[in-house]
């Protein structure tokens, strides 16, 4: 099944330094929690993954972690940032949650889940402010907040 996408412009939104970007996220397929790779939400400059992924948000219930990463244009992933959390299944799969990304520079963001600070992430070689598309798994629904 193909991924789904939305343009930030269709929501009249942009990623801007100092401004919070918040989404309500819901996994509509609870059995996905048992899948090894979980699901993902990718912040991209274009619809085509070959152009890279600026910010990859990937909750994985089976390993109790959320993986953050950046995919360079040459298809090489950067260094993973792993947020360990025993409640990944409950928070990211059993109900909707709030994902908030706040750019603090063009390449660095603060990541929050349900308004709790999780980590600071460096988009390795990419600018979060270049995000024009959100590409996400077909069994996930997202809405701007």
Automatic annotation (TrEMBL):
SUPFAM superfamilies named in the record: Concanavalin A-like lectins/glucanases
Domain Galectin: 7-145
Top-level taxonomic group: Eukaryota
SMART domains for this protein: Gal-bind_lectin (SM00908)
PROSITE patterns assigned: GALECTIN
The keyword Transmembrane helix belongs to this UniProt entry's keyword annotation: no
One MF annotation (Gene Ontology) recorded for this entry: carbohydrate binding
Identification of the protein by name: Galectin
């Amino acid at each position: 099944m193909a991924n789904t996408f939305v343009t930030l412009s269709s929501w009249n939104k942009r990623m801007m330094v100092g401004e919070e970007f918040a989404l309500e996220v819901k996994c509509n397929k609870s059995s996905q929690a048992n899948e090894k790779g979980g699901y993902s939400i990718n912040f991209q400059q274009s619809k085509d993954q070959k152009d890279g992924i600026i910010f990859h948000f990937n909750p994985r219930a089976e390993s109790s972690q959320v993986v953050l990463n950046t995919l360079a244009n040459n298809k090489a992933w950067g260094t993973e940032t792993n947020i360990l959390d025993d409640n990944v299944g409950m928070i990211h799969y059993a109900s909707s949650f709030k994902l908030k990304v706040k750019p603090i520079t063009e390449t660095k963001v603060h990541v929050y889940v349900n308004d709790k600070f999780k980590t600071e992430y460096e988009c390795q070689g990419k600018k979060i402010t270049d995000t024009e598309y959100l590409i996400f798994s077909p069994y996930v629904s997202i809405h701007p907040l």
